[in-house]
Known about the structure:
The chain is of the alpha/beta class and about 500 residues long. The chain has helices spanning about 5, 30-35, 40-45, 80-90, 110-115, 185-200, 225-240, 255, 275-280, 300-310, 335-350, 410-415, 420-435, and strands at about 10-15, 50, 55, 70, 95-100, 145, 155, 205-210, 245-250, 265, 315-320, 350-355, 440-450, 450-460, 460-470, 475, 480-490, 495-509.
Amino acid sequence: MSRAQWLQNAVFYEIYPTSFADSNGDGVGDIEGIVRKLGYVASLGCNGIWLNPLFLSPFRDGGYDVADYKRVDPRFGTNEDLFRLFAEAKKLGIRVLLDLVAGHTSDTHPWFLRSAEAERNAYSDYYIWSSDVWTDAVGSGLRTVNGMCPRNGNYAVNFFSMQPALNYGYAAPTEPWQMHWQDARLLPLRREMEDVLRFWLSHGCAGFRVDMAASLVKNDADQSATCALWREIFSVIRREFPDALFVSEWGDPPRAVGKAGFDMDFLLHFGSFSKVYMGLFRSGEETVFRRGSAQTFSAFFGAWESARAQLQGNGFVALPGGNHDMVPRLCDGKDEAVCKAAYAFLMTLPSVPFVYYGDEIAMHHQALASKDGGFGRTGSRTPMRWGGGKNAGFSEADTTYLPMGEGETVADMEARGGSLLHTVRTLIGLHRTCPALAVSAKLRVLREDTLAVYERFGGGQRLLVAVNGNGAAQELPFAAGRVLAAEGCSLQNGTLAFSDAGYIVAEAK
């Protein structure tokens, strides 16, 4: 099955490996722990997994400071363990995406250590360096680290000071030391990155989520050079791996998908659509999904339709409930009924949904001191709560990587009828099996005030969906047939009555 066909009804589950399941009792999650929990992921109905970074790293930014792209960090296991994870997931019909940090590395990466040497060598051009230590890179719009290396120059960073920016060139060079992005001297780095992709794809990886995908080419005001660079990389890799999936952390689907060639791009807490995305789940008093909210769905639907129209059928928008960088978590500040309504919305839009581990059991953000460079994000990365026993089943260690939070566990919700976990399973099942909920199926919005009402149709099926995220009691005409799933409402004689936050998915008459 081609990647475009497979994505039609795909649902991904994001796993932060350090916090998911510890198999060896050291207090840190690992690959074997993930293997043992694959049955759970499959039971949710998810057929894709996105793994946050597993590569060798000093973990000063949660693994997004890579020291070796082709080696699994020992805290998680070995390369062979990861290969086995790919194989076991495949048996369950699950495709696994790795996290590719393409724009920068750790300052402990061998490429950088060679690039930082005083004498010129094969790696000198792999990173962005000013001409000497007296010349900063302020004019390039980048921050630099000054006077820290034997090399007579200052290196640019993409994020933290220990994450030197890889050199993919400049769209509009303004200094002699800046190379044009099409400069032949930059080709060795591109070939290296292509080889990284080739290595993991050849061992069973299904594709990559690309961190900071827009960060490659510098001084690229309209990002056209960065888009062209990604198209060049894809043209090489897809000749060998035509079904490899590429998801961008860009926050601008028309650009990332329509121009750069990614299969899908996220709506995120940053980027062109950040305000409307955050307005759904995480904008305090202005959040749509909040009990008593007066906010409407109109701004979201307007931006959503604009983004999808600009894709012109070339790829898809991915809508995450949350991720490892988002604060607060999806269910923070929401009761269970509102959380269920939020999931109904996520699973019935024409998108590729992503579920962040633990959100299906309403895990909450904790106020914690920074760990591994997480800072304010650390509290959204706490250990998964599985069940009874020590550390809620996450680990047999006396001390876990991060403190265990409070709240229900998977086992608790499995045993409780009507729990959020049961609802999430039901809704994922509908997304996976209903032709009208495929990502390419049509959407017609019927109402977009404090109540969202819309029609989905395709594949010979037509569905009506209504979602109430604020809990207000209200009634509306609703000419539906067989009800596939509903909570917080009742349908009788053509009238839909909401008594609470909730949703309905029904066949249209």
